[in-house]
Amino acid sequence: MKRYTLHSSFSIYHFEASTWLHSVHKHTYFEIIFILQGKGIHHINGNTFPYAEGDVFLLGPEDFHNFEIAELTEFSFVRFDESIHKEDAQDKDRPWQSVIRTLLNTSSQSRGSIVENKVEKQKLHQLLSVLEAESMHEQTHYFEMIRDSLMRSILIILARNLFGQNPAKPLIKDSVEAILHYIKQHIYQPTHLTIEHLAETFHYAPAYISLFFKKQTGESLKQYITKYKIKLIEARLLYSTLSLKEIADEFGYTDESHFCKQFRKYTGTTPTAFRQQLFLNK
């Protein structure tokens, strides 16, 4: 399956299409998809949702999707990585940080469009209009501050709608969404992500939780955890100044050699070569 990479921490892609030209794909980043006009079908993680004007979807890394366009559709894709909600020391304990963190760590794709209320949709689309207008001047001194403020507002409104929805489809304690959420919360704690620990946490037999997860997602628990970790590491390599040793320590690798070996196994390149891509693509 094709995987798209974001070569900056933020971008907006606004376009119209009558035919969807991309195959089913994943990303290394988060993506808010605004439907400005048109209708069709949005396939996400094996689920099928009709879409129409005003709908808003939130996809995270490892979500896979594609569209079937029934009527000329105007899209706006807002793409960003985890650095968009970086925690400054003065912001660490502010309520909006935990709201955004929970939103981005919660799988929302069994619910389709996050926003149902017409007024809420209008608010989000108005914020999008301002964000797109400001993005035309991204080289100015104030752009990042305005962008971050607008993104914070968009994400908090999405969180309010997602968590405030009528719980027709609740996050069941032993559902695959609960397991995915737990993995994202504990990705820096390898001891919490062993098959044995996950089985105990979710009250499954070790053999059964592996079968259950693979049936629901199409890949094994171990493979999903490793690929999700590699995705986060790719972002560290491209957008941080951490050394390889510091990244290895952060993600619980026993040593730098083991980290480099696993990274190359899953990406086909070394961490150093991958980091150099950012400079080669500028």
Q: Helices, strands, pairings?
A:
Layout: E1 2-4, E2 10-17, E3 25-27, E4 30-44, E5 47-52, E6 56-59, E7 65-80, H1 95-104, H2 118-135, H3 143-163, H4 176-185, H5 195-201, H6 206-217, H7 221-239, H8 244-250, H9 256-267, H10 271-280
Parallel strand pairs: 1-3
Antiparallel strand pairs: 2-7, 4-5, 4-6, 4-7
Brief summary of the model shown:
The protein is an alpha+beta fold and 282 residues long. 45% of the residues lie in helices and 20% in strands. The strands form two sheets. Strands 2, 4, 5, 6 and 7 form a five-stranded antiparallel sheet that branches.
Question: Explain this structure to me?
Answer:
The chain has 282 residues and is an alpha+beta fold. The protein folds into two domains: 2-163, Jelly Rolls, CATH 2.60.120.10; 176-280, Orthogonal Bundle (Arc Repressor Mutant, subunit A), CATH 1.10.10. Helices cover 45% and strands 20% of the residues. It is built from ten helices and seven strands. The protein has helices at residues 95-104, 118-135, 143-163, 176-185, 195-201, 206-217, 221-239, 244-250, 256-267, 271-280, and strands spanning 2-4, 10-17, 25-27, 30-44, 47-52, 56-59, 65-80. The strands form two sheets. Strands 2, 4, 5, 6 and 7 form a five-stranded antiparallel β-sheet that branches. It has a two-stranded parallel ribbon with strand order 1-3. A hairpin with a 2-residue loop joins strand 4 (30-44) and strand 5. 24% of the residues are buried. Mean pLDDT is 83; it is low at 166-172.
Give the percentage of residues in beta strands: 15-25%
Number of domains: 2
C-alpha-based Rg, rounded = 19 Å
Shape assignment: globular
Sketch the major β-sheet.
Answer: 5 strands, antiparallel
Number of helices: 10
Report the CATH architecture of the largest domain. Sandwich
**Highest CATH level, the class of the largest domain:** Mainly Beta
Question: Which residue ranges are poorly predicted, with pLDDT under 50 across at least 5 consecutive positions?
Answer: 166-172
Overall structural class, as computed from helix and strand content, comes to: alpha+beta
Share of helix among residues? 40-55%
Q: Could you give the distance between the termini?
A: 26 Å
> CATH superfamily assignment of the largest domain?
Jelly Rolls
Overall average pLDDT:
83
Question: What is the element string, with H for helices and E for strands?
Answer: EEEEEEEHHHHHHHHHH
The beta-strand count equals 7
The third-level CATH topology of the largest domain is: Jelly Rolls
